[in-house]
Structures are given as C-alpha cells and as structure tokens.
Amino acid sequence: MFRRLALIGGGAAAASLLSELLERDATPPLQLDWFTGGGRPARGVAYATTSEHHLLNVRAASMSMFAGKPRGFLDFVQHGDPSVNGTDFLPRRLYGDYLEAEVARALKQGQARGHHVNLIPFAVDALVPETDGVTVIHGEESHRVDAAVLALGALPPQPLGVVGAAALASGRYIVDPWRLLAGADQTQPPPRKVVLVGLGLTAVDVVLELSARWPQAEFVGLSRHGRFPEVHLRNAALPVDDGAGLVEAMRDAPEIRQWTRLLREAIGQPGIEWRAVVDSLRPHLSGLWAELPLEQRSRFMRHARWAWERARHRMAPAVHDAVDALERSGRLQRRCGRLHAVEVDGASLRLTMAHAGVVEALDADLVIQTVGLDTDLRRSDHRLISQLLTNAHIEADPLGLGVIADRNGRLQHGDRHWPHLFAIGSLLRGTLWESTAMPEIRQQARHLADQLLDG
What is the pTM of this model? Predict the structure, then answer.
C-alpha cells in the first residue's frame, strides 16, 4: 500500500477522497498531506457560495458524498429540517455545510484509527514524479510521498481569445465571475447594462445573483445558440428502462451522427419523456466516451456538445421560474451570435458578434465571461499545471478536456504511465467525460481509495 500520500486541492473531490481514505482501516496507518490551497477546505468554488439563489441542480437524494451511504446528504439536512424531501433542490451552501461536517467527522475517525492528516493551507508549486514515488515542492520546502493525487477542480478561467488587451485592462471585462459574486471585484457605480458571454449554468447563477444586487441593471445573455439549459421536471421521473438497448446500439456504432439518430429515435417513441432517456445513459457515459475515436470526440465537441449539455445539466424548476420572470419583465434578453471581438469604446465596451452572416455590435457597461468550467491545460496559468506540462510530466488532452490519463486516473505522458501520480474530478474529462458531478466523483473516490490502499 501507499502509506504517505499528498492530496492537492481543497474542493469536493479532494474532500470525498480524503474521507474515503480515512474511513478505512489501514496497516500501517496513513500519513496524508492535504494541500487545500487556502479558502475553506471541502467547499471549493461550487459550494463556497452563500447565496440563496444558488441551488443544486441535482435532487437532494442523489447528492451523498459517499458511494456506500446513498442517504448521506439527505440525512444531514433532514436532521435540521425534517420537512426536506429527497426530491428537493436545495441551496448549495447547505451542501458546503455537509461537506465540511463530513470532513470533520472523517478527520476525527481517522485520528482514532491512527491516521495522521497534515492540513496545509497553501498550494503546491511543483511535483516531480518518479518510478517509486513523488517529490512535492511548496515554497522552500520539499518532501517525498508514496503517491500524489491532483484534485484541483476547475482551473482559473482564462479570457476568451477575442477579448482585446484594453478591454481586459479596463476592469469592465470580468473573466472570473465568482470573484465578482464574492465581492472581490467591486463595480462602482452599479452598471446599467451587463452582457453575459455564455448561457450555461454559470450564467444562470450570475444573472440571478446580480439582478438582485443591481435592481436597475438590464442583462443580455449571448451564446452561439441563445438558449439556457433545460429544466428538470417538477416531480422526479424514473427512467422507463435501464437504457441497455440504446447503449448497446450506440456501442455498435461509435459515431456521433449515428448516436444522434439513435437518441432521436429513443426520445421520439410514444409516451417517452426525453429526460428519462438522457438520465438512463448517465451510468454508461464514461464507457461510451471511451468507444469514440478522437475524430468523433472532436466532432461532438464542435457540433453536439452544446445540445447535450443543455439536456444533461438542467436547471432546478425554481431557478427556471426565476430566470423566466426576469425575461418576462424585460430585464433579461437572450441573443444568438458568435463573439468576434470585445474592445473599449469610450466609457463602454463594444462587442462585435455575427449571426447568420450578419455582423452587429452591442455596447455594455460590464461584460462577464460565463462560459463555465475551464479544463484546457494548454491555456492555463495555474502554476503547478504549468510546471508539470513544461517538464513533460503530464500531457494535455488534445480537446482541452484536462489531462491524459488511464481510466483509473493514473496520469501519463506519451507511453509513460506514472505509477504514483493520479487525478480525480474535472481533470479527467478527456478520459471519462462525466467527471464533474458528485455522483461520478464519489465513485471515483471509492475506486481511487481502493487503488491507493492496495498500492
């Protein structure tokens, strides 16, 4: 077994793996260095929010931290409020509370089992993987561990390539919306016209919070297709079957056009609710993704990703109602277009966009980039990621979906697999595709804990 471990990252994926490890009996006991990178351990970006507008987009009954304890989150919230149902979409801050409570409990149990955890509220500057371990460097210190796990979550967002240097320097183009929502980037006076670039779940979070904070502001959401995510049914619906027939047909024809045709046929059957078909595929998505050759993955990213993610990552009904109310009031508009440029124009920013061959301009007091999760290592300025890439220890996924790794999370560069360097969570999107939501992360955490303890 690997006795001394380094866990790098302070979010939900790291917390899940830490808790899985500390709940096991291991001889000799583990020595675990947890580099949380600052902030409140376990919450990460997603669950650090305190806004009541920010709800989970998964029902409470499906949000347990542990694969072996399916009622974990529901039991936690019902202890404080017995009226909560498993079908409810609860505030994300409650899930952050749950993660913190589970980590505290795991640390206590780990100590009773003889495990030692060293919480280090700093980032790791460099890693040097070798055939028999990993050297961890932070500041002026370095030490050797048996294995290290990257659980970094979302990388720091980078500005879109069409954004001009003057626009970035003006402070009126916000690259990281979460800094703005947390109050780190203050805009004085409040803007009157705000443009959101991207219309996924991040945009939904931003517009709901800022429309309440700035009651006089009007918002324009811009994306290639001008559509928000779909909405969950108000009442939970079980899949009509396990999707085995559809999955088998998709495996027989690993080609995006064929998959699109098969999905349309499945959804078009009488009495079939499309959400049930999409949800029936979820347990099989990583295996299906592995069937696709790189050329077909690239085709999916160019042509079908937007439609799939609209259907797969849906809004809670209450969130949909709030967004719909903003649109009906006239405070929120949606526009279709491909962004060509963002430049300074006097006291405003001017966006140039094109749709259906027509080029037009849009002015804004403030532009916020809400394109969602960034996992493109090739454009990242993350210090540790840059060091690992520069030293050829890891390799970036060619489609910008994290790192090259095997299905067990073991990192590789070319033909070299590092036996002691792993990843969990969003960095594995290129390998597993479904690798960002808690139901998938908790399965990864259990499987990786088994590997680490088996050595």
Answer: 0.94
